[in-house]
Amino acid sequence: MRNNKSILENERYLNHTYSNEAAPPSEYPNLLAKWLLDNVYKKPGKIADFGCGRGDYLRAFKLLGFEPYGLDISPTVKNLSGFKVKQVDFINDSVPYTQEKFDFIFSKSVIEHLREPTPYFSAIYESLEEGGKTVIMAPSWAHTYWGPFYIDHTHVTPYTAQSLKSALEMCGFQKVTVKYFYQLPVLWKFKWLKIIAKLVAKLPIPYSPYNTVPWKISNRLNKLVRFSKEVMLIATAEK
User: What is the pLDDT at residue 1?
Assistant: First the structure.
């Protein structure tokens, strides 16, 4: 049974967290989608974004020739024109969330919000075609345990590389790999620059939104500091 109170709370959360003021639109979804096409998916196909929010990645994948499908807990997902979309409650709905089958599934910054992620992983597995691939991204507990993980008060389940790998394998996924992922596109092209990011991460430099920064800091510098410290996990797996 759908929990209306839960949906309302999540709608408020999404409207606040992903407002244009809190998270201004940027080129990042296009860059990440292109990186995923080149390094994971290898070719366009039918793809579902589990937790599509305001549709940034739906638009990015469509530009690359994918056939995108979006699922989200917020009723506002129905306002995304030009895409197949479905409102689902990732916490209370029974699985599978959709009868559609997909070549690829993408999920970013969702699983850390779920106290019991197994039904979610199972829904992803059931929604994939045989041989289909999924990408799941979440904050790395090894890099955020000291505070940044809880910048978002709705984060409830942390993941290490090993715990995420085990969770996916328990749900039947094959060829599971989990790696650390820096959300700094320059590092995707020039991997040797990671040494600079690792050095920045060790410095006690305040950054927004984790700290109240006492001086004006450029957006570019703030992103360098933040995403050198706040490393993600990226899991790839096949059915």
Answer: 39
